[in-house]
Amino acid sequence: MQSHPSDAVPRVPSDEELARMSTEDLVRLGNRLDDIEIVSERDRFPVPGTRAEKRAERQVAGWFILATLSGIAFLVAFIAWPWEYVAPFEEGAFWYTLYTPVIGFTFGFAVFALGMGVIAYSKKLLPEDLTIQQRHDGRSPEVDRRTAAARLVQTGQRSGLTRRKMVVRSVGAAGGVLGVGVLVAAFGGFIKNPWKEGPNSPLLVTDWHSEDGERVYLRRNTGVAEDVVLVRPGDLEPGSMETVYPFKESMRTHPEELAHVLKSPDSPVMLIRLRPNVTVIKREGQQDFNYGTLFAYSKICTHMGCPTSLYEDQTNRILCPCHQSQFLANEYAKPIFGPAARPLPQLPIAVDDQGYLYARSDFIEPVGPAFWERNS
Ligand code: FES
């Protein structure tokens, strides 16, 4: 019967013998120990520096250069492209809509080109060996690990990477740019200081805030930004809810501001009129925030910021459809079910001498989900 390579168990050298062995000796030993049979072995370019080799190098480096350029384009777009929301009818909307496709394409193409460069390198420049290896179980002993490392070293030497400066530089540039890209994508959001404006920082104020004391009214959204319809207490039936938005007289001649508050994420407020016989429990310090049976709560869920749009007047429950948090409208919108842990912030409201509802101030706590620095 013909013997198989795996039938012969080679002698394992001592540690001293291993230390004296050359890279080639270790590779040969490793092949025998790992039951690797080399069927054929061929350097792709036995004579270094031929035109064919240079052409192959340029093709490989070309992919890495494309990866580098695409990575740089991604970085520039990520930092400088107009990313802030622009409504479809506003100036600059076209460029805003391209933001996500541009950063997605440039980053995706950079990764694709880097992968193509690695494939091209292994196909065009690495030695063309055909080997067969038997499978082994369990953890490798020291001798196997040493010989495997030697094989990697030898492959690196035979690949000619040390003399292919163009490939080394282009793959270094591509890897570096992509690495920086990943860091920028991961930590770019931390560069901007959200607390720069102190008590007026964006996370602490909403569009219900009035810097100059101008009164902020509650308005409906009729679907047309310029169509301003203010709200009176009698507009809501007992047991009903309406979403309202902030409005100041100074906005009337500024269509872009009228449109802005309708899409601003911290603007929407649920104005709820409880039934007259409902028992109400108020929160400490917010006893006068309501107007009769009218209560105004931020619509932004304190769990993860979804709009809590569903109001069930029989049970006085406000439901967030995202993860089913429930809040009691007659008990300062405290959470009674689901993952939300804080009440919906309440807007203090009153009625002016014309009978229109207005906000007496901004919310007294930040709206929406928790963040590190909030203390309530
Ligand atoms: S966002 Fe409302 S329950 Fe999760």
Summarize the entry for a quick read.
With 376 residues, this protein is an alpha+beta fold.
Characterize the structure shown.
With 376 residues, the chain is of the alpha+beta class. It folds into 2 domains: 14-134, no CATH class; 210-359, Rieske [2Fe-2S] iron-sulphur domain (Rieske Iron-sulfur Protein), CATH 2.102.10.10. 34% of the residues lie in helices and 14% in strands. The chain has 8 helices and 12 strands. The strands form 3 sheets. The protein has a 6-stranded antiparallel β-sheet with strand order 6-5-4-3-12-11. β11 (349-351) and β12 (357-359) form a beta hairpin. It is elongated. Residues 1-7 have low confidence and may be disordered.
Keywords:
376 residues; disordered N terminus; four-stranded antiparallel sheet; six-stranded antiparallel sheet; transport; 14% strand; 8 helices; 12 strands; elongated; 2 domains; alpha+beta; binds FE2/S2 (inorganic) cluster; Rieske Iron-sulfur Protein; membrane
